[in-house]
Amino acid sequence: MKNFQKNVELQQRAKQVLPLGVNSNFRYWGEGITPYVKKAKGSHLWDVGGNEYIDYRLAFGPIILGHAYDEVDEKVIEEVRNGVLFAMTGELELDVAEMIVEMCPGVEMVRTACSGTEATMHAIRVARAYTGRELILKFEGNYHGFQDHTLWSTYAPAEAYGNRRSPIPIPASSGIPRALGQAILTLPFNDFEGFERVMRSYGEQIAAVITEPCQGNCAAILPQPGFLELIRQKTSEYGAVFILDEVKTGFRIAKGGAQEYYNLKPDLATYAKALGNGYPIAAFGGKREIMSIIGHGVSQGGTYTNNKPGIAGAWATLKIMQREPVHETIQQRGTRLMNGLREIFDENGIQAVVSGYPAMFSFAVGIDSMTCQRDWTQSDRDLYLRWAEAAMERGVMPDYDPREPWFLSYSHTDADIDRTLEVYAEVVRTVK
Ligand SMILES: Cc1ncc(COP(=O)(O)O)c(C=O)c1O
Known about the structure:
The protein is an alpha/beta fold. The chain has helices at 5-17, 70-80, 91-103, 116-131, 192-202, 227-238, 257-261, 288-291, 308-323, 326-347, 373-376, 381-393, 414-430; strands at 37-41, 44-47, 52-55, 109-113, 135-139, 184-187, 206-211, 241-245, 268-271, 282-286, 352-357, 360-365, 396-397, 406-407.
C-alpha cells in the first residue's frame, strides 16, 4: 500500500492559498487522492510521500525524452547563465525556428510563444485577420487551450450537445463572453456529412477550421481515413484557414508530427509540449503567405515569447530528436504496451477499444468503437478510474482523467512496459 498521508497534508496546506490547492484545475483529482510531486527522473516519478510511479502522464505530454534529461538540462543551464530575457532576438531562437521549419512539412514561417494556449490564440487571430472573417469551426471534445475563443464543447454530457445535425456549442466555463458563442460552430469529430453540410452553409463566413489531428483530449480518438483530408479540401475550396492543433501530437507521434504522419499540409499549425521536453515553449506557423501578414496590421508578440529556458530546451530537444532514434524507440515500446493491453482485455473478456498512437494512446471500456466524444461518453469511465486507482497503488500512473491519453517517452524501458502490463493484468482481473 502506498503511504498517501504526506500528500493529504500538503493538499490541506495548499488549499489555504491556491484555489482547489493546485495551480491548474486539471491537477485536482479530488480530496485525499490528489498527488503532490517531489521529483522525477527518466520515466519515473516520486510523490511527496516517497511513493514511486512509472509515469504515463508525462505532464500531459511534454516530456518526450524523459524527466530531467541531462543533455537538455545542461544546455538550458549553460544558456541561462548568460541571461534569460532581453526583449531582443538571439541566434538560438533562429536555430529553433529553422529546425521547426525543417522538421514540420507545412511550416514555412514560425513564431514562438510560451504555451499551447497562446499558440492557438495567435493562430486564430492571424486566421481571422487573413480571411477578414470571424467564424471558427471546432470539433466537440477537442481542446485548444484556455483562451475564450475555442473553450467551447470541450466536454459536456452528450445530451447537452443537442442533435448531431445542429450541435449546440457549450462554453466550458463561466466567464466566457456569450457573444463569442456567435463566432463559434461545433460538430462531432469524424462527422463527414455534417462537416460538408456546415461548409456548404457557412463556408464563406468561416475564418478557420481548427482541429487536433486525433482527439488528444478525448481518449485519443483517431481521425477516420479521409477526415483530415476532407477538412483540407473543403477549407481550400471555401477560402478558410485550416489550423491543425499539434500541441499534443507535434514532435511526438513523428518528428514532423501529424503533418508528417498523415502527409498533410494545413495552413497553420500550433505546437508546444514535446517541442521543449517540459520547458515553456510553444510555436505556431505555416504558410508564408499567411504568416507574412504578422506585423502588417496584425498584432502578435509577448514579453516571454523567446524566454531562454524555453528556447534552449527546444534547441536541445530538437537536436536530440534529429540525431537519435527517439520516435522509433517510442514506437516500438508503445506498440508493445498497446498490444499487451489489448491482449489483457481479450483474455478477460472485456469489451474495450485501445486507440491512438504508440507515443500517445488511450482506451475506453465497455464499447468496441468510438469516432467522437459522444460515443466515448457511453464508455465505463468508473471502471477506468477504479483500474487507474489500483494501478497507482501498484506504482503505475496513468492520468486520473480517462479523456487524457497515456504518453510514452524515450526513457520508458522494456522493463517499465513489462511491469505495467503485469500490473494491468492483475488490476483488470481483480478490480470489477
Ligand atoms: C491540443 C491542445 N491544444 C492546446 C493546449 C493548451 O496548451 P497549454 O496547456 O500549453 O496552454 C493543449 C493542452 O493540453 C492541447 O492538448
